[in-house]
Amino acid sequence: MKSLNRWNRLAWNKMIDLDSAQDQILQSLRTNLGEKNLLNLPKDKFVSDVLQDIKTKKQIKERSFKISALVRKLSKVSQEVKPQVSFKNVGTVQHIGNGVATLSGLPSVQLEELVTFPNGVQGMVLNLDRKHVDVILLGPDQGIRGGDLTLATGKRLSVPVGMQFLGRVIGPLGRPQDELGPIVPSEYRFIERIAPGVIERAPVNEPLYSGTKIIDALIPLGRGQRELILGDRQTGKTTLALDTILSQRGTDVKCIYVAISQKKTSVINAINILKKGGVLGQTTVIIASPDDPPALRYLAPYVGVTLAEFLLDQGMDVLIVYDDLSKHADSYRELSLLLRRPPGREAYPGDIFYLHSRLLERACKLSEAHGGGSITALPIVTTQKGNISGYIPTNLISITDGQIMLDNDLFNKGEKPAIDIGRSVSRVGGAAQEDAMKLMVGALKLELSQYEEVARFARFGTEVNEATQRQIARGMRLQKLLGQNPHEPVSMVDQVILFFALTRDYMDAVPVEDIQRFSHDLLVFAHTQEIQLIDSIKYHRALDEALIEDMHNMLGEFVARWQKIERGEK
């Protein structure tokens, strides 16, 4: 049996084939037991038992070998890996509703930090307390319940920006809304940014034409200016803003229109107007619908100015319209009340002024050393019965560089645009006005105000002399000339021609009711017969003696033709 054990070990160590092992076992048994004793053994059973024993030991050794190799590998890896401990800032939902969540935990969370909920929606921390934090949701709250765990990301809110957003309609967080496919951004930027300092800025000295005659003549805009548009509901505030965007067709100005809590039908109409006017390709429309969470309505204008700042950093000129900031203030008030912040005047929170100042101060004109670009802001605010002393209008008037006041009575009389010249002002735009426009409109505002005063006395039946009658007639023609239809912007050159005709008495013989028709025919004549004169005014931006003489010759010829046609002569 000793030989058998020896052979057993030999077979095991050498891993011999099991079929040949049987013959070797039998040969060993013949030698040690003899043929006689061998014949009395149950051959098959004995051999099978031995082979099974060998197979079992082999399997055990193979497993032992594999385990030993794995242990050696793990030991080697463990020596190379340094032990690390991972901590996660986790909170628990205590209350959820109306787009606001109250969370416990999150001991190291920071203000404006993003928090992720179980359904994938993110929120931004807006309130910090000893025992809880308040988070505004950036998406729907469906599926979020009390007791759900939340995870602090350690990141601030950033939005995509890039040239690819021009010509697109997007949501408050930069997601496409126009079914034109995804947008590949150039980069991501934080929505909050410190406004450029005084040293980085340059004076406003370049005009931005609105296409509205009364604005460009009497309340001029400059690139980098912040001009507030005020008025009651349905008085043409959005129309003025859209016309300003339309007038940028063919220029290098990029436009951003931010619709805050506007009806979807109104937004669709605005998009169609921009598309029809051929400026949608250089415009980005940002929509924050009334049915969006209040957080998205609150963030929309900051997303718009962040995109504008990207274009500004490329050295571009940008026009951004906020329509409107009174609804934006209402959204912030709603959020603040849900966050249990102490209400102040008209239930607005105490930092409502800072809300808009940090937004509008980002509009600027940069110096050439910093790129020379500009952001021109046209914020819109709704008044109640023409009251500009309301809380939000007063704040915005103090922040901006002037205001365009729309009057409900003028609108009802059919005077469009219904701009109240007496209460409208541009504090910096005059410095950016072209020399040609300055020469034409220098005394128009005074003439218009004097006309309104004199006309008021004339309505009471007061007798007036011949000079006053001429003044009233001149004022009536001026008022008629300043009127224009919506979405029909007038270029700078066309305005110069019309105001030249008025101030040089070429319209004195034209009946007041025919002023609009006379103006239309004059511009058609100039663009068909005096193309060289048009190009000269457009190029020089000023009127020298030669151009003034050419203007007189053109107007003399046109008036003679127009009067001849009016008399029915061929």
Walkthrough of the structure:
This protein has 570 residues and is of the alpha/beta class. Helices cover 45% and strands 15% of the residues. The chain has four domains: 79 residues; 67 residues, Elongation Factor Tu (Ef-tu), domain 3 (Beta Barrel); 271 residues, Rossmann fold; 128 residues, ATP synthase alpha/beta chain, C-terminal domain (Lysin, Up-down Bundle). Helix 1 runs antiparallel to helix 2 and helix 9 packs parallel to helix 10. The protein is elongated, with a radius of gyration of 41 Å.
Number of strands: 16
Provide the CATH top-level class of the largest domain.
Alpha Beta
Please bin the fraction of helical residues. 40-55%
CATH homology group of the largest domain: P-loop containing nucleotide triphosphate hydrolases
Order of strands across the main sheet: 8-12-11-13-14-10-15-16
Report mean pLDDT, rounded to a whole number.
86
β-sheet strand percentage: 15-25%
Largest sheet: number of strands, sense, barrel closure: 8 strands, mixed
CATH-derived topology of the largest domain = Rossmann fold
Number of helices: 18
CATH architecture of the largest domain: 3-Layer(aba) Sandwich
Radius of gyration based on Cα positions: 41 Å
Number of domains: 4
Structural class: alpha/beta
How far the N terminus sits from the C terminus, by CA atoms, comes to 142 Å
The dominant shape is elongated
